[in-house]
Design a protein that fits this description.
The chain contains 5 helices and 5 strands, in the order αββααβαββα. The protein is an alpha/beta fold.
Length: 158
């Protein structure tokens, strides 16, 4: 995948993150790409759905399963604005995703190199290529803006 394509699809993931931001969810967005076509989209909906598993990546993967008609997502890329957590990294592995592309590292929950590196664990029968830092600053700026907004809301309540 070219640098322009990586930027294009991360921009699409950022659009999904914007939906989460507007819904007062942690602004993470994800897309699944197969043959340069988006086949799954998702954004964080944990608060809205009262579901700790409603991460952007999980929702995008589910949409991709439905598109493909199978749980195997071979030859697919998973783009996420934020480094996937252990759950999402594990789901990507089980789905046979080829490549995970993410923007900013998640030093508290990241499982693609920050805390763990689940997708590249040599003891498993499937490893995933990881590409990080795509539009990292834009992702970080959106996250900072979100948490500033949350702090301001809390201050208004107090």
């Amino acid at each position: 995948m070219t640098d322009n394509e990586l930027q294009f699809f991360m921009t699409e993931a950022l659009k999904e993150a914007g939906k989460a931001f507007q819904a007062d969810e942690v602004p993470v967005g994800a897309v699944v790409v197969f043959e340069n076509k988006i086949i799954g989209r998702g954004y964080n909906q944990t608060e809205q759905l009262h579901d700790a598993t409603a991460h952007a990546e999980m929702i995008a993967l589910t949409a991709a399963y439905n598109y493909i008609g199978d749980w195997r997502l071979e030859n697919c890329f998973l783009f996420s604005t934020l480094e996937p957590c252990a759950m999402c990294s594990g789901a990507a592995m089980l789905s046979r995703i080829d490549t995970i592309v993410y923007g900013a590292k998640d030093k508290k929950f990241g499982a693609c190199g920050s805390i763990f590196n689940i997708p590249q664990e040599p003891k498993t029968n499937h490893q995933i290529e990881i590409i990080s830092g795509i539009m990292e600053q834009e992702v970080a700026d959106l996250m900072k803006l979100f948490f500033k907004k949350i702090r301001q809301k809390k201050e208004q309540i107090n």
